[in-house]
Amino acid sequence: MKKILFVFAFALTGILTSCKENINLDQQSQSQATTNAAAAAKVSAVIKQDYPTATELLVTTIDSNKVYGCDFSVNGVAHEATVAATGKILSTYTVKADTTKTALIDAIKVYLETNYKGYKLEKVGVGKDANGKDAYKILIVFNDQRITLLFDATGTFVASFTEPKSQKPDPKNAPKTYSVSLTDLPANIQSQLSGYEFERAFVKTNADGTKTFFVSAKIGDVLYELTFDGAGTLKSKNAIKLKLPKLEVKTLKDSELPKAIKDYLSTNYSGWKYEKGIVILKDTLPDSYTVAISKDGKIATLNFDGSGKFISVLEPKLPTVPKFEEKSIASANDLPQVIKDYLNKVYVGWVFNKGSITLKNDVAQAYLVVITFGTDKYYVYFDKNGAFIAAKKDK
Prior knowledge:
The protein has helices at residues 30-50, 106-115, 187-192, 259-268, 337-346; strands at residues 54-63, 67-74, 77-84, 89-96, 120-128, 134-142, 145-152, 157-162, 176-180, 197-205, 211-219, 222-229, 234-241, 247-252, 273-282, 285-295, 298-305, 310-314, 324-329, 351-360, 363-373, 376-383, 388-393. It is mostly beta strands. It has three domains: 30-241, Roll (Nuclear Transport Factor 2, Chain: A), CATH 3.10.450; 247-314, Nuclear Transport Factor 2, Chain: A, CATH 3.10.450.360; 324-393, Nuclear Transport Factor 2, Chain: A. The strands form four sheets. It has an eight-stranded antiparallel beta sheet, with helices on one face. Strands 9-10-11-12-13 form a five-stranded antiparallel beta sheet, with no helix packed on it. The protein is elongated. The model is unreliable at 1-28 (pLDDT under 50). This is PepSY-like domain-containing protein. It comes from Arcicella aquatica. InterPro entries: PepSY-like.
């Protein structure tokens, strides 16, 4: 699994330099102008509470009467924020106008070089989303298009937005995207998320006022990426399993066989002697059965699915039962080099906690590496060749 996510809009609001608070009042009624002026004052007051030394505040409308953007400066450093009309700050970013790429952490550099080789870096935003989670917002130019990408605190890719190609960027008509919390979503979308564990959400507002909602939420170890239109209708749903199945082989007595298998043997192999049986469990649930029986020196091996339905029979060879085992990995030195290379690029400074390898007939099937990165613990999964599959942060 290369990208545990879907691509959704997250356009970077440009940092503008201005000497006063402002909202464009052209072609607006006096009533609307008064409303916007009040909103600008409220947004400015909210920003001033968190950033008392903020100057050059510029307030713009993202979603009329609902969400506003605010660009400002603190001690000469550019910042940007999105603020709800209620006064709730939805996101804040410190903008580093560093085009030398030194402002990027290594994991983001690796991602951009891999997927956008030759890109031009325009801006790096470091801050928090509406849920208070650390995030990076990066603006690049690639193949004559401006692309905004969002990453989490580890540099893991979360989302991206590609602006349409044009001779000259049009900030006024470009889609505006902002982070929202669960309670900020429309009620009909919230109701559809019942039973999910909410992760994050974003709203894209187009120049014509139409909206798209992008939501990430989990059920158990499955991450769902949901897209809703402005009316709250679900338009797409992607599922990514974050946890590898746990395989277990269990030997069975004849009395422990499922009734379906017992009935099949009684009907088709009456008088045969039960020799051996196994069940392969996947996440504690039966995945398949293998049964060996004998008669007059002849051995038959029968295969059944997880429900006990007959699949095939092999005669007269003795059964070949796959051997599964879980083997601990003692240290980082015992990891395949390809896994260490990946961890060194994506989790710079990682510390090995423990690891394990799933073997089938002594051949590697999958790897699990538990690491500490900063103050967080991560479970990182790789396939039998050491290729990255998924990563899960321990809560």
